[in-house]
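Here is one chain, start to finish.
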Amino acid sequence: MPQKDPCQKQACEIQKCLQANNYMESKCQAVIQELRKCCARYPKGRSLVCSGFEREEEEKLTLKPTS
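Its structure:
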C-alpha cells in the first residue's frame, strides 16, 4: 500500500477554500501558504501534491531576469 501524501490535507483545504470562494485564489492565500510550508518540510519528490510548487521553483531559478 502506498504511503499517504504528507501534504494531502493542505491540498484538500485549498480545494475547499477555492470552492467556497468562487475560485478566487486571492481569498485562499493563507491556505496556499500552509501547503507551501508543508512542502518545504519534505524532500523534493516526496509529496505528489507539492510537484507543482517544485516546478514553479525550478522555473524561477532558470528564468532569471536579464538586466
